[in-house]
Amino acid sequence: MTDIGTAWSALGGDPRLLTRVSTLERRGALEARLGVRELARACVGACALAAAELGARRAGLAQVPGVRVDDGAVATAFTSERHLLVGGRVPVTFAPLSRFWRTADGWVRTHANYPHHRARLLAALHLSEDPDRVAAALAERSALEVEEAVYAADGLAVAVRTPQEWAAHEQAVAVAGRPLVERGRLDSARARVLPPAGGDPLLPAAGLRVLDLTRVLAGPVATRTLALLGADVLRVDAPQLPELADQHADTGFGKRSARLDLAADRAVFEELLATADVVVTGYRPGALDRFGLSPEALAERRPGLVVAQLSAWGTYGPWAGRRGFDSLVQAATGIAVLEGTAEQPGALPAQALDHGTGYLLAAGVLRALTEQLSEGGSRFVRLALARTAAWLTAGGPPAGEPPAAPAEAAYDGPDTWLAERDSDLGRLRYALPPVVFAGGPADWARPPGRWGGDEPRWES
């Protein structure tokens, strides 16, 4: 089931704390054939409960603060990139070559939002940037042929599969054999000691330093959430790989952003790592290992660290080394067919795999920090979009099945959960955070700044 109890159990949480969670269900929020609303509610609720649990420990409270999950806030946050306005301008969320394409025997989904991914896609197809020519070329080839040719060129394309086709795939079998949240100890480092965290609002992650080595959406959603909860989050990107400006604006709330070459500026990175509490990575499994950034190598240099890792397909199976994005995982795992048909694939009402996995990753970090207070040990937390997709497709209600009970209210749009503020990027309209608990923060302490606009050092 895609419910908060399942998510909380996957995080190792005490089931007795689930009584601290209340939910306001709203008709019309994240409507889909699959249980997207339930998944979103579970991921946000588990994250908020993990935050409240850590906050209670640090503030010396006798009881964990109550958590409130509102479907309206959750639905708005899960579509935050669509509600963002930067100086009154509506961002572009998908580039022209990021879409479904007909092939000789079905469909493929491509992703070409980044310039280097677009160039690799076109190189694989031996074409210039002309959507009509791309469509004509793909229509003459099989979906699997396109998938393999683009992958061989280091680009991004997947064949649209039915749920049955995906279930028979080696990668699906590997994913199904793993827990929703992989978590564990890396060593026997001594118990973490954190100063009391009280005040108004209660910030469970106050004083913690988070190195953010993530891109796109799921990882930045996780670190954006940790920033909301008081962490000093420093996002670090390679100078030659700028983030898309609007994407950075959407996920940059509460953080600072610096450019750092992990090879040339190794001493700077090591100085940051020496006092970091959490490292979050969102690159392909193994891609950062040559820089000494595997969980084991990081924990050896910084005992007591929490290392959180995110990938598209998982760290196992034949696709472990492949890049991926939410839209591609939907296409490969059968979700596109379930939300549409084999003749005309569809999509979820939000990039729910990205957002949901992001909140679960933040929850995993928070739970690891709480466990360290009693048990010590460097920790790892690991999630994959494909594993979240398996949870959604296995646990969602069948198409057309009515809810067990009528929702309490209606979702009449996002306005209630949108806010505006000034920033260096211009006037911003944005979605408010859905992670809500009694006494906790209602908004981020700072708006996003310019990508790479900060020095690579801790703020405090």
Describe this structure in words.
This protein has 460 residues and is of the alpha/beta class. Helix content is 36%, strand content 15%. It has 17 helices and 17 strands. The chain has helices at residues 4-10, 36-59, 71-78, 80-83, 115-125, 131-138, 143-152, 163-167, 170-176, 218-228, 245-251, 266-273, 295-301, 326-332, 335-339, 352-375, 385-395; strands at residues 21-24, 26-27, 67-70, 85-86, 100-102, 107-110, 157-159, 182-185, 209-213, 232-237, 256-259, 278-281, 306-311, 379-384, 409-410, 418-421, 428-431. It has a seven-stranded mixed sheet with strand order 8-14-13-12-9-10-11, with helices on both faces. A three-stranded antiparallel sheet has the order 4-17-16. Strands 5-6-7 form a three-stranded antiparallel sheet. The radius of gyration is 21 Å and the shape is globular. Residues 396-404 have low confidence and may be disordered.
Summary tags:
460 residues, alpha/beta, 3-stranded antiparallel β-sheet, 17 helices, globular
Architecture blueprint of SSEs:
Elements: H1 4-10, E1 21-24, E2 26-27, H2 36-59, E3 67-70, H3 71-78, H4 80-83, E4 85-86, E5 100-102, E6 107-110, H5 115-125, H6 131-138, H7 143-152, E7 157-159, H8 163-167, H9 170-176, E8 182-185, E9 209-213, H10 218-228, E10 232-237, H11 245-251, E11 256-259, H12 266-273, E12 278-281, H13 295-301, E13 306-311, H14 326-332, H15 335-339, H16 352-375, E14 379-384, H17 385-395, E15 409-410, E16 418-421, E17 428-431
Parallel strand pairs: 1-3, 2-15, 9-10, 9-12, 10-11, 12-13, 13-14
Antiparallel strand pairs: 4-17, 5-6, 6-7, 8-14, 16-17
